[in-house]
Write a structure and sequence with these properties.
By secondary structure, this protein is an alpha/beta fold. It has eleven helices and eight strands. The two termini are 33 Å apart.
């Protein structure tokens, strides 16, 4: 694949080198990009996750920004309180960004997330989705896709149920802004976070974040897998405003076979031809629904 060079990305860096993330960690690269878009006046609230370890503790910190660590289920509540406190102190400029994995979003943090979204709290909630509880031993979450293996769904069993549709749940709250993004399309990611920085109220991001050890891929395959997720229709890139579909950010001329995305990942090694067909049909059904929504725009 031809190497892409992006010389027009912001030069500022808020993520120190020498951090403790695994090689090829998409979550870390995602944070590097999104901080470039949001800038210095950003405070992180980080729940229990891989990134609560990666962010570190002073003086061995990873981010050149203020960070507040919190327990697993409370990130949205803590972020809401922090933003209200800043506002009460006369600071309306600092962005409060809640960073959580899929466990802290889809599962343990869902109640607090829903409550903050319903109240339209003025925060940005970012889910970096590596599709399992990677930090605590690679156990399945409700974000784990059908047929994937984990330490709680080992071969030959694999996960028998589909991934929870978090964006539909978020859309039901009719929040001002929500979007999907991935590091394979950095300009799209930067543009969406820059846009979110100009909006008041609750904003939500769903970032697909391939995890080399958890997915069974090599550390240099992160970008390629992220791109394949989009090009196969497994993870479409789009935006919502006030709960309504706005735009499809990237529309492949023709979707690649889902097997191209599944086969490189050892977590899908037990899938049969029938499983591949089932997943392909599910992806195509979801893609047609999304195109129908896009056609009305």
């Amino acid at each position: 694949m031809k190497l892409q060079v992006f010389n027009d990305l912001p030069r500022e860096e808020y993520l120190f080198c020498g951090h403790t993330a695994c090689p090829g960690c998409a979550a870390t690269l995602s944070v590097r990009y999104l901080t470039k878009a949001l800038g210095k006046k950003t405070v992180f609230v980080i729940t229990a996750s891989c990134f609560s370890i990666i962010a570190g503790q002073p003086p061995l910190r990873t981010l050149d920004l203020n960070v507040y660590h919190c327990p697993f289920p409370s990130s949205a509540a803590v972020g809401s309180g922090l933003k209200r406190g800043l506002t009460a102190a006369g600071d309306d400029q600092t962005q409060v960004l809640v960073l959580a994995g899929d466990g802290g979003t889809f599962d343990i943090g869902l109640q607090g997330l829903s409550a903050a979204a319903e109240r339209n709290e003025d925060i940005i909630f970012v889910c970096y989705d590596n599709e399992a509880y990677m930090n605590t031993g690679m156990q399945r979450s409700s974000a784990s896709p059908y047929g994937s293996q984990s330490n709680t769904t080992p071969a030959p069993l694999a996960k028998p149920t589909p991934k929870k549709d978090i964006m539909s749940i978020i859309a039901a709250h009719a929040i001002p802004y929500a979007a999907t993004a991935t590091v394979a399309y950095p300009r799209d990611l930067l543009a969406k976070f820059s846009k979110a920085g100009t909006i008041k109220g609750f904003r939500f991001f769903h970032l697909l974040s391939p995890c080399p050890p958890g997915w069974g891929i090599e550390s240099d395959e992160t970008i390629e897998l992220s791109r394949l997720a989009v090009e196969t229709g497994v993870f479409p890139l789009y935006e919502l405003e006030d709960g309504e579909f706005v735009t499809l950010s990237h529309k492949p001329e023709k979707l690649l076979p889902v097997a191209d995305y599944l086969r490189p990942q050892r977590r899908f090694s037990t899938l049969t031809a029938a499983d591949h067909e089932k997943i392909q049909n599910s992806v195509e059904h979801g893609w047609k629904k999304l195109l129908a929504r896009a056609g009305n725009r």
